[in-house]
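Lab manual, section 2.4: Encoding a predicted structure.

Procedure: take the sequence of the chain (375 residues), apply the prediction step described in section 2.3, and record the output as structure tokens. A sample record is shown.
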Amino acid sequence: MNVSFLEPVFAAAGPYATVCADVTHTTENADAELDLRVRAIAEDLTGQGAPEPVVEAVRGRLLEGNDGGRAGTVRGRALVVAADGSVVLDEVLAAAPGQQLVAWSPQPDLVPVLRHRAARVPHIVVIADRVGADLVVVGDSGEPDETQVEGDSFHMRKVKVGGWSHNTYMHTAENQWEENLGRVADELDRLVRRAPVDFILVAGDVRARQFLSDKAAPAWAGTVVSMDEGGRAAGADREPVDARAAELVAEHEARLIAETAEKVQAAGAHGLSVTGTDRVVEAMRKGQVETLVLAEDPDEEDLLVGGSPLELGVRQQDMDALGARGTAVPADRALVHAAVATAADVVVLPRSAMPDQVPVAAVLRYTDDSTSSGK
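Recorded output:
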């Protein structure tokens, strides 16, 4: 993951409030429920010592769901607010976080934010019938964008008529179906050309699904997944479609995790990866890290950080060699800051997927005679 979007965070002065919160707004009592959740978050920040401007900034952003609009469709939200109350990060999460984060600390607690943000799999959900389709597009921002493609329903219903006109009605209806669904296919083609997706889930009318599969353009034909359940009719249950989309997202996330772990191992075979805190810190100081790989449940260990994010040390001797005075900083936070400073990517994996379950690893841009490989 490119983490350049974090640059404004580290350009601001701390301490920081870091929040990952459930802001789901889909029930009848959504306004009251969100208000209670935000009130608890505000009280937690106040109890940790956050000043009122910071608490108010968090409260104001999280309560936007009660005002409706796009904010009312968001399920999870991540915020980082600097000491002066300025919001330096406001990210929509792919889903409500399983574990809420509320922290007021000298450094922003960004690993949970990155973990939830990584759960973004660009995709499109299509519920089609013979008149058109409802489309939900989820891009890199994580925010769903809903749209409709409507065709003409004239002559859509086949009627039983006798004589010469029967085939004419049948032919007209078939042509109208194809014209309507052709519009849906054209819209999908436009969307995918603008931003590639990992999958397109197609639900709804069986003939409509078959038509879209048959007419899929080469750019997205291999991404189409069809399902039997779901429909556009008023009152139709969308839950099975949402559940299937969530399953597909989880499958793609699991594949990405496996690919990242394999990348670290493959790079290691050529001496281009290191594992373990000491060796990653050494590589980070020299700007060798191409991709920093962190366990989502990091160890409770500190690094010493000097006057710049690359003045890093595991122990005091390291700082003495750099001629710098160090301040203890949680290791994951210090390493994320260093990754941003060196334009390295960051990936957060479950501990079980890490090589030998170490807390940190790195794929390197290059090696030199001093590079220490292994663990």
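Check your result against the sample. The radius of gyration is 26 Å.
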